[in-house]
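re: ur question from yesterday

yeah so i grabbed the chain u mentioned. its 762 aa long if i counted rite. heres the sequnce exactly as i have it in my notes:
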Amino acid sequence: MINRSFLIVSLLIATVGGCIYRFNSVTIVLLVLVIVISCFNLNKWFMMIVIILGTPFLLYFIHDAHELRIQSLEPDQESAQISGVILPDEITIDGDNLMTNARLDVNKHIVRLYAKLTSESEKQAWLSEKNIVHFEATSDLSRIKPPTNFNQFDAQRYYETKHITHQVTIKSWQVKPINSKKIWQKCRYQLHIWHAQGIQNAAKLPQPLSDYAQALILGTASQSLYGNNPGVQTLGLIHLFSVSGFHVSYVLMLLMAVLRRLYVPQEVSAWLGALLLVNYFVFAGEPAVLVRALIAGLIMMTRLAGCRRIPIESVWAVSLLGSLIYEPGILFTLGGQLSFAMTFCLLFTTKLNFWQVNLLLSAVSLPLIVSQQYTWHVLQTFVNFAAIPIFSVVIVPAVIVGFIGQTVPFVTHLMNSIIGLFAHSVDFIATLPGNLIIGKLSWFVSIILFLVALLLFVTEKKIAQVARVAWIMLLGSVLLWTRFPVHGEFSIFDIGQGDATLICEPFKRSVTLIDTGGQVMFGSKQKWQEQAFQRTKGETVIVNYLHSQGISHIDNLVLTHQDFDHIGDAKIILQKIRVNHIIIPAGMAEQQAFAKEIKPYLKKTHVIEVTQGMMIPKMPLHIVHPFQVGKAENEDSIALYGNIGGQNIFTAGDLNQAGESAIAAKYPNMRVDILKLGHHGSKTSSNPTVIKQWQPKVGIVSAGRNNRYHHPHMETLKTIQDQQMTLFNTQTHGMIRYNYTRKKGQFEVKLNHELATTTTTN
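ran it thru and got these structure tokens back, copy pasting raw so excuse formatting
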């Protein structure tokens, strides 16, 4: 009874903390749910535990959340003088970019630090850095920015869970090694130094042994891990590569086996095990997700030392509370959610067989994973069945032997071959049919799916049967809803200095993507400056959003002309999404840009070169330009016009004023309600006479913040003002969406939500 009360109280404390840090519909519903459960378990022990534990936790959460809020409100500063400490095992270098966490001297806040390396020798010095370093710098201090596109990864909230609210960009700095005079700090620093040395040694190993060693032994997921091993993420094997209870158990098992061979008394072994756990926690970088396993391992050591056995429910509760003390926002992260959800389920699976346990864990983890990555592979459960025992018996021992024996080339090569066979098998399975694009789950559906999944294998057979039917029906309904939405959208992505627009008709009758964006690089870089792991906006913004909307294919990819900021990420789209047709202006197929950026990635995609008046299947807009074959320059841009959601929409890439005038002359009766302003708002487009003739009500500019061209130009802004148009600009509003049903629609923007109420009717 006491153990059950303790378990429920820990859940109550966790949900109260959730409301304090993020007061929203999700945390409120979860708190109410736990309160309802608590009402069925009221007794004196329960109330006593609530008062004894709940009061200090409540005060701690309130104080910590208040401090975090004050920290987040610190103003941005340019050329600020700062100093702080950097741990060598937290440094990441890609090309000429250095990224790390740094603890500032003045307020002890941790910030994200970014620096540009100026020479190859400086890069090599940082790559081989093994010391704790102190720096003094002139830098720009700023708040970590929120996402500017819908359903984009929220770096601001993610780092807030780690009490990091600001970032610094180094302008100039001096660094030097430091040593601490405090014994405990010396020990901590030394463990981090050894960790950095281990990471540097692992980086020299062949792939995939290098990635596996960094993840499984050193607790550091290298930037190349998921890039080199795409099947790991696709098949949901991420949990195997996160230092967790699995790895702690393995370390303890090895230690106990060695100590038994040496006939060390059990009590002494327990103390040595506890000491090893604490040191391994620091050595692995002190990750919050490891606290649960650390506490559980320490409790297990007390039992070996002769203390009374603690029930597993209480162990889980203590682990949760300990993790919340160390990092109150841990349950806002996917790693924390999976860690505690999976171990919670295991508390009640003693009577289930191996297959039932894995089915339960897969069903429980599905809403957690899909809510953030929007996809789910049907083979994921079956792969986990095989991968978990293979990892325990083959992969982890091979990684340990390969890492320890790296001075013997034969050993390293053999272990790498074994791991490579496993890695290639996982990647191959991930390419098999069955990767479902589910889309973003609403918070309410996620909670229901999660709760129903917990009942799939309860002892009451009728409840279990109803839960299974309900879970399948609910998931099926979600798939139907995301696959066949009743509303349509005309959306302009915020991808910086470039263009990318999505048109999705109701029930997904057609999906059209106009341009893909692409970062234009100015000047050439030396080999050492090139980034190896850069993810483009095409993947992190466009593909991510398409997946969140349940879009698994594109009917028509329109590339208005050959400029890189319009077609640069087309290859990413072609690699990640099935595309039926690519629409390009007549003459573009003969250009070098097409041969380099598009042709190698076409696969089965059909290329259609167009001129004015050509009809394309499943194209919601009409082609009104170009009039003749050209060279895919700005003046040859494809211009599209048509009615979407009761609004006449015109968009034309980088078409110049002469082209706009030619279209106006060709179609004298054309009227425009929503005008996607040409060439990012440049004065070379948006002919005032034509705009006056078209009489648009809404203008949309897609341009990068602080871009070198100063788009949109003052001349264009004056034209907009003269025509009394409502202006939406990705620079200030982020992603812009026109959501519609039949002939009525409403604008929605990611930033400055006061404009989201702008509506249009026909």
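noticed a couple things. Confidence is low (pLDDT under 50) at residues 754-762. also Residues 26 and 443 are 6 Å apart (CA to CA).
anyway ttyl
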